[in-house]
Amino acid sequence: MATRTEIKRDAVARAQELRAARRARRAELKAMAPQDRKEARAADKVAAREAKKSAKAERAAAHAGMTRAERREDRRRARINRKVEHRPRRAVGWGVTAVAVIAIGGLVAPFASAFGRLMSIEYDSSSPAGVAARENAAQVSEDISDEGIVLLKNEDDVLPLAEKSLNVFSFASFNLILGGGGSGGSNQSQAVPFYDALADQGITVNPDLKATMEDAGAKTETGGANGLVQIAGAMLGGGDEGEPAPDYLTDDVMAQAAEFSGTALVVVGNDGVEGQDMSPEQLRLTDEQRALFDRVTASFDDVVVVVNSGNQLELGFLDAYPQIKSAVWIGTPGPRGAVSLAKVLTGDVNPSGRLTDTYAYDVTSAPAIENVGDFDYANVKRSYMDYEESIYVGYRYYETRYVGDEAGYAEAVQFPFGHGLSYTTFEQQAAAPRVEGETISVDVTVTNTGDVAGKDVVQVYFSAPWTPGGIEKSAIELAGYDKTTMLEPGESETVTVTFDVRDMASWGTEGHGAYLLEAGTYQISVRTDVHTPVAQFDHVVAEDVVYDTDADTGYELTNRFADAEGDLTSLSRADWEGTYPQAPEPGATASDELLARMDPEIEPAEGEVPTYGADNGLVLADLAGLDRDDPQWEKFLDQLTLDEQIDLFAKGAYRTHEVERLGIPAMDLLDGPAGLNSLFSPLEAAAYPTQIVVASTWNDELAFALGESVGDEAVAHDIEGWYAPGMNLHRSALGGRDFEYFSEDPYLSGMMSAAMVSGAESKGVLTFMKHFALNEQEVNARTGVNVFVDEQALRELYLKPFEITVKEADPTGAMSSFINIGGTWAGGNEALLQDVLRGEWGFQGIVSTDAVLGSWMDPGLAARYGNDLMLAMLPGSDKATRAAVEADPVGVGNGLRERVHTILYTVLQTNLFA
């Protein structure tokens, strides 16, 4: 087999040849007459498409004759080729914004004025209500990290610790990663350091070993950077230098440590930050970490590993070293995370968390990896990304790919989705499912058969019948879950998991599109994780059932996203090798049709121009309590001038516009999912575990408590809205904001989100579920990337968490994403915002953009098609809105009026008018 160096050398040579060929071709095209150049480009496009198709077919044919090892090397070679050809751009978009913030003193007046407005916002963190809210939040945070920790392995019952003396190795132990960076970051100033938490739990840490590491340079950092500074630091390559070589662990040091205690603990991890994705190498042990494990396992037979990361690390080393007896995953557990970890180590807390992602031995074995990276068009300044893996994300891929191949599955997957151990044992006894009308209920009696108290998680799945050539279906899907209360030894509890029959239907694009529950035998199973069944039952559907209207609203269901599919070749379980995703070849060109969607020309509408500036003697308070369609609204909206409407719509970043003469107050809106986070002004606010840890509790009540706690603090600080929760999926292990999102599974993500939203809104606080939609990658997201995905995957995976949240929690807000879905920006996408969000699902709230960072985030499109607020930190959106109204006084003018109507109706629902 070729070495990595040899493969990379070949890849560099290949890339140089391709670049030279492209330069030569560009020179040829430049020398042509315009008409000849146009025809040549069209021919090149056809040839490129055919070449790609031919290469894919040839590779599939070659794979058929390869061994597994040869296929692995071939894919490795393809990945390195892609990496060399597509160097990720790290510092575009947010980097520009962050540098602008840091250099604000040198900005011209309009920019300084815009930032000055945001930086002038002040909050009093010392108020009694604020202090009380933070004190309550600390307990909520600890409750979540207590239940979010996952016990991955525990051979010989090394945990909980039998003795209270412990050797703690690794520089990483001095600074646990408690949260992520950027708008999803949080205030960790009150975090408890790990060594302090251990001491508080009565664990005596080897002081000589700790001193040795400190002498070698280890130290505990305090405080934390502003969110934008975190982003800028990541873009510019700053941050943690990682674990050093363990040269400081001399023979004398190791001998003293072995005499002090027979148990060693090592922390490994990494941190994510908005604006930057991971590379596979960042999710693997470094040479220095491996050397540390070599050194520690040579002296200790009982080693405990703490996995401290919001992304899925490659954890094969846990199996490679037999001395590693126990491992706990803590994710990014918030300011009380070290306390929870210490309690788990001593047994004061019995771990009850479960993984929300599949942990594969090789993170690049997920098919989505093939299309993660930086892919640019040759004929326009825009990037693109293909979701060729379709519905086969996370366990939907591994559980389906390896049906009937347990050896292959064991080689690919280390820890299945839903995995988690306990210090006690449980027995689950499931009764046969009850079908009552359109609802299926499964009763499961859980008994603690061990010696200590603990909580268990009941997971219910379904498997739908699949026909080769028919609708794509995962071999298994999560249908529902529940968590027991604390069960004492011998105690039992019966939990009931309920779901709708139509939840087992799949989206079919045949005809006009609908959900189809195909005739056949469905299997309903109770499992301890996605791969380990406890009980299985058959459910027979006698004939096909078509669901062509929404169950809650009655709105027509139909295909709405044909443009999003582009010319994808989607992965199919009927032909894994032949349809396996392939990285795009360099030099792709955007078609004329796509270019038109990216920069649409819309004819001005005919009709009546809205009324502006009328004197009807109304103030906003006069409309409190009225329905949204009450006639009084028209009289009130007639009073607004065009300038006032533009300001209300276009100046929606963090503090909305005030119109004093009409009694319209400003709303304060803040980030982020792990606690209130002000990017522009000081705010001492509570912090919480990140959303991946929240989801790992599998406890909706704790997610509700988090939202409720944030709501209390928001009320204390007169903050009306919260840019949370983050609801995009873990499409791959490389997502830079995976810590900020819940899971690879849409159902778990949706239920956790709905609980958080319900908690916050119970306090009268607006929530902006985000990022709607397809913001699974950070690279190029802030420069207007085109994302292509088939409608089945879009509906069943990426829109589903938002749909669940709308229907379960009735949120008052949403945040559209940076993403261009098939070329059409999400914030100006009528099918997404009007037809699906407001039409099919019945959403009645406000939609804000994400931070306005480029001209593709067109306020004219937003006003027309359903995006109510422009989160514009920099000037320009107001001028662009005015230009759009002048170009189309009827279409944009009436759209703008409707956006302002939504803004003002929402203002009346806040605590400003409580």
Structure description:
Mean pLDDT is 91; it is low at 86-108. It contains 29 helices and 29 strands. With 914 residues, the protein is of the alpha/beta class. The strands form seven sheets. It has a six-stranded mixed beta sheet, sandwiched between helices. A six-stranded parallel beta sheet has the order 21-22-23-25-28-29. It has a four-stranded mixed beta sheet with strand order 8-24-26-27. Helix 6 packs antiparallel against helix 22 (700-716).
Percent of residues in beta strands?
15-25%
Rounded to the nearest angstrom, the distance between the terminal CA atoms is 70 Å
What proportion of the residues is helical, as a percent range?
25-40%
Shape: globular
Radius of gyration: 28 Å
Low-pLDDT stretches are 86-108
Spatial order of the strands in the main sheet? 1-6-5-4-2-3
Helix segment tally: 29
Task: Provide the residue-averaged pLDDT.
Answer: 91
Q: Structural class of the helix and strand makeup?
A: alpha/beta
Largest sheet geometry: 6 strands, mixed
User: How many β-strand runs?
Assistant: 29
What attributes does this structure have?
alpha/beta; six-stranded mixed sheet; six-stranded parallel sheet; 36% helix
Question: Would you summarize the structure shown here?
Answer:
The chain is built from 29 helices and 29 strands.
Give the helix/strand layout:
Blueprint: H1 4-30, H2 34-64, H3 68-85, H4 94-102, H5 109-119, H6 128-148, E1 150-154, E2 165-169, H7 194-200, E3 204-205, H8 207-215, H9 227-235, H10 251-260, E4 263-270, H11 287-297, E5 302-309, H12 317-320, E6 324-329, H13 337-346, E7 359-360, E8 384-386, H14 395-401, H15 406-412, E9 413-415, E10 426-430, E11 434-436, E12 439-448, E13 457-463, E14 477-483, E15 492-500, E16 506-508, E17 514-517, E18 520-529, E19 532-541, E20 545-547, H16 562-565, H17 576-579, H18 592-598, H19 632-639, H20 642-650, E21 669-670, H21 691-696, H22 700-716, E22 721-722, H23 746-761, E23 766-772, E24 786-788, H24 791-798, H25 800-809, E25 813-816, E26 820-821, E27 824-825, H26 830-840, E28 846-851, H27 859-865, E29 869-871, H28 877-887, H29 891-909
Parallel strand pairs: 2-3, 2-4, 4-5, 5-6, 8-24, 21-22, 22-23, 23-25, 24-26, 25-28, 28-29
Antiparallel strand pairs: 1-6, 7-9, 10-12, 11-12, 12-15, 13-14, 13-18, 16-17, 17-20, 18-19, 26-27
Helix pairs in contact: 1-3, 4-9, 6-13, 6-22, 7-13, 20-28, 20-29, 22-23, 23-25, 27-29, 28-29
